[in-house]
Give the backbone structure.
Amino acid sequence: MCGIVGYIGERDATPIILNGLKRLEYRGYDSAGLAVLNEGNIEIRRDAGKLNHLEALVRNTPIHGQIGIGHTRWATHGEPNERNAHPHLGSTGEFVVVHNGIVENYLTLREELSAEGTRFNSDTDTETIVHLVEKFYASGANLEAAVQQTLKQLKGAHGIVVMSSREPDKIVAARVGNAGGVVIGLGEGENFIASDLPAILEHTRRAVFLESHQMAVVTRDEVRVTDMSGWAVEVKPQNIAWDPVAAEKGVYRHFMQKEIHEQVRSLTDTLAGRVDFDEGRVMLHELGLDPQSAREIRKIIITACGTAAHAGMVGKILIERIARIPVEVAIASEFRYADPLVDEHTVVLAISQSGETADTLAAMEEGRSKGAKLWSIVNAIGSQAMRIADGCISMQVGPEIGVASTKAFTAPLLDLYLLALHLGDLRGAIDEDRRFSLVQDLMSVPALVGECLDREQAVAALARKFKNTRHMLYLGRGINMPIAYEGALKLKEISYIHAEAYPAGEMKHGPIALIDRSMPVMALAPNDPWYDKMISQIEQALARGGDVIAIATDGDELIADLTPNILWVPKTPWLLSPVITTIPLQMFAYHIASLLGLDVDQPRNLAKSVTVE
């Protein structure tokens, strides 16, 4: 995932930035670069590929200075080449920016800036940021105010770091939403900026973490934090433990909580290099598909275990709705004993975070033995499920430490959406207008997830109310039915509370007998095609004395009249709603387990990678 490192002090910034970027390599990237202020001029070195390419470039054409910023990038807009790599310079060469996130309205901003005479030198959304900073600075604002005014023009969630030769004694960093953390490392006569702690831990153990809608002006001797209106914000530096595992958690109590909050960034990276928003196309080159091979597919069987199987259930709806290919979802441990109907026109698609799950690998072997093409969606690069597949989609979420999967659940939801679009396009199942519209819907997803994460305190309050319950019933319909299954699984995994999930339409066929005042009902009722049916289920649960918690779309007055227990989510295109509705369920399970004092990251009897049957 995209990484940011900055330095201001008395030492040479270049090795500090390069070493910091190396410590963020595990997050993944496809290009890298750095900018250093040297004798009043900003010098830049950038290259596609891994950091060793950039290091070689710096050896051949050295740059030195005492203030600089660097970046590793997953491409989201524009190909992963030197031209599109960060940092990005403004037109005068006096301003430079690095950025994590997606500028959702960059096309509009680009058109406006171009009409004013701005010349763009990349295909990225990020370049609009530096030109806006330059524009506002030219109108009389100082660097800090120019960044503030720029951020007000941007839609989406962002982590931004800006430097200028016009004000060579400072770096300005800002965070809006949850596109990525911004941490300021405090030194003596020097300070550091990074998107995550590992980049700066060798230099300091004292850090300030920016919250959403906060900005920091960083000099050699001072860090001044404000809100976006310029009002001072009092921040208390935190002392980071020397234990490297504890340090990785940063401000979070558990890895699971950290990984829940990393989902804005992980989902941004999931889209990186795979979506051309300008053309409205999806690119999944690793599958090696062309129109002919796509049309030869007659059936897809998604096989997985646990959380990954729930993602597959959502994938079935996405692929059938968009690409019009029949899809079955098979639990991997059952698949190879079922004598499945598979032939050369079948694709067996395996989903696995670790890529080493024994049952999933066995299911893949069964598919291979019957002549099927094998695909996989995997997080662990180089794992068995990746190696034996004919084509693979990497989740691109980085390491997931918590046993209960979070970011490695939402990423494959987007991967499956991308796959459905890719197949639908190649097979001619969707026209150009619908394809473009469905692709544009993706742009807002990271920011919508960020909105959900900003509501964590409301989720925690409901968790306190229900932490002593011993049984819960989860209900969902349509595309959110699998999210009910996933929500119940999360609660079971980490809080040890008995939770059952059902298709809501099945409630009257048995589960309704369980409902009473001691059995809370979690009802997923976002504004989707099944909304009216879910309202009926909520009313039936209430009529039996049940205590209902609802997942509902902002502004839903009807649900607000039915129950006070609501986990609100922002309005979302319904095909992408599972990515959003799962966030409050993850946080709800997490906070209940945390309140109960349980080992959230390593729940009893569970392992991160199940390598035996």
Notes: The radius of gyration is 25 Å. The CA atoms of residues 8 and 191 lie 6 Å apart. The first strand starts at residue 3 and ends at 8. The longest helix spans residues 407-426.
